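Batch job 17 of 40 flagged for manual review because the log was empty.
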Amino acid sequence: MFLVDDEKFIVDLYRDILEANGHSVVAVASDGEEAVRKYKEMAEKPVVIIMDQRMPIKDGVSATQEILKMDPRATIFFGSADLHIEKEALAAGAKGFLLKPFRIEELLVAIAEAEKDKKQ
C-alpha cells in the first residue's frame, strides 16, 4: 500500500489497521507532489494507493492524474471528507471513493477487490 495524506495521525491509523490485517505499507507521502515523485521512483509499484484530496502543494486529483499518466494500471482509492470531489476523483481515474470517516471494513473490501483484479 502507498498512503498519501497530509494528516500524520490518519497515515498512522491506516498503517496500523492495514498491517494488522496482513497488508504492508511500502510508502507514505504527505502531499500530491511527493506522491508523484515517490511513485515514479518505485521499482515495485504498490497494489493500491490510498489518496487524500486536500493536501498542500498538489491535491489528490492532480496527483492521481499524473500517476495514472505514468502508469494507467495504478489502482487509486480516494479517502476524503470532501464529498463534492467524488465525481472529479472518479473522472480522474480513481477506482473508488470512501467518504471520511469511513468504516475500516469498506477500505479492506476495496483493497481485497483491487488485489483480486490485479491477479486476473
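Reviewer: the log was empty due to a logging misconfiguration, but the result itself is present. The first helix runs from residue 8 to 20. Unflagging and moving on to job 18.
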